[in-house]
Amino acid sequence: xxxxxxxxxxxxxxxxxxxxxxxxxxxxxxxxxxxxxxxxxxxxxxxxxxxxxxxxxxxxxxxxxxxxxxxxxxxxxxxxxxxxxxxxxxxxxxxxxxxxxxxxxxxxxxxxxxxxxxxxxxxxxxxxxxxxxxxxxxxxxxxxxxxxxxxxxxxxxxxxxxxxxxxxxxxxxxxxxxxxxxxxxxxxxxxxxxxxxxxxxxxxxxxxxxxxxxxxxxxxxxxxxxxxxxxxxxxxxxxxxxxxxxxxxxxxxxxxxxxxxxxxxxxxxxxxxxxxxxxxxxxxxxxxxxxxxxxxxxxxxxxxxxxxxxxxxxxxxxxxxxxxxxxxxxxxxxxxxxxxxxxxxxxxxxxxxxxxxxxxxxxxxxxxxxxxxxxxxxxxxxxxxxxxxxxxxxxxxxxxxxxxxxxxxxxxxxxxxxxxxxxxxxxxxxxxxxxxxxxxxxxxxxxxxxxx
Length: 452
Fold this sequence. Notes:
By secondary structure, the protein is α/β, with parallel strands linked by helices. It folds into four domains: 148 residues, Rossmann fold; 118 residues, 3-Layer(aba) Sandwich (Rossmann fold), CATH 3.40.50.620; 61 residues, no CATH class; 94 residues, Orthogonal Bundle (Arc Repressor Mutant, subunit A), CATH 1.10.10. It is built from 19 helices and 13 strands. Strands 4-5-8-9 form a four-stranded antiparallel sheet. Strand 1, helix 1 and strand 2 form a beta-alpha-beta unit. It starts with 8 loop residues before the first strand and ends with a helix.
């Protein structure tokens, strides 16, 4: 058992062999919450002993991601690749004490390996999530702890690192449960304190398969969600609820609230489903809490990235961008949706004259004369309104809706929508008139009448 007066220290040990997996992100979050709520420390260790696959760019990307998420580490940044001499000291200690031995066998390019002398006993530990777990270590036999004196394997280096950095709680995915008995045996042989273990349920896809890059592609990596324009607070909020429940109906949390509320004993034992739909909903809820000027600025920057929109003078009209931002914001759940919409040309009609065939202006079996009649009536009504009166979509709605109800909503509103946007699907025509303004709305309706 851990000394109650001992300072709690957790660790996050990513391997820089690829982008940061969202499962690892959740592991980092739970370690961070647990350390912070107990006034402890959260340390980061880079497990970069795989010389072939480890890349500096992956390491830097991971560190940037942790910063983006709002997770600050304590103390120095550990690199296993810089600690080989320390591992050699512990390997020699085990060999000298007869607890490990050199075995003459081929392992890759090596002609000998170092094996741990298994005491062949039952190891029992209490997992904070899974309860008491027992392993008969006999089946592990004498397992390898180093490929040679200069190349310790994971099981030895992790025990030494956890001991030297004072780690009190090892919180990790339950795919590591099978590693625990080996590490306990090594720790006992070295005479170091045993940390408290907590093994988290794996994050699963909808079909309950393990999330993997091979099967699910880039969607398993944090940078995928960063590029799509999700908010860091929303990612933190959502992943904290994958496999853990606060025991209340509350779903929207800030990171500070999560630190106060998180209870590791409430983490579920079974696999947790990753639901992109729920993530989108949570992200939108966090977006709604942003200041209006922040929302408008982000939308403006995204719009500017589009070649067509960036060339329009309208993009520099602050009032116009504010009006269009209201409509855009209502139809997105993440910032990247704007890139998708603009890329498909769905917003181009706001910035340039719409192009369409005259036939599209006709509602079902309606005739050109009827459509022309309704559009002319609308122009006459708009002409009577002062420019500064268009302060909301309701101005146009109050002007037109009763007429549309009397003469058939489809007959009136369908050609109006097409005239303004050139699209069968777009914001309602009242919103379009509000955004485009009186003058341009009349101009576009007049062009539609000419087509008819």
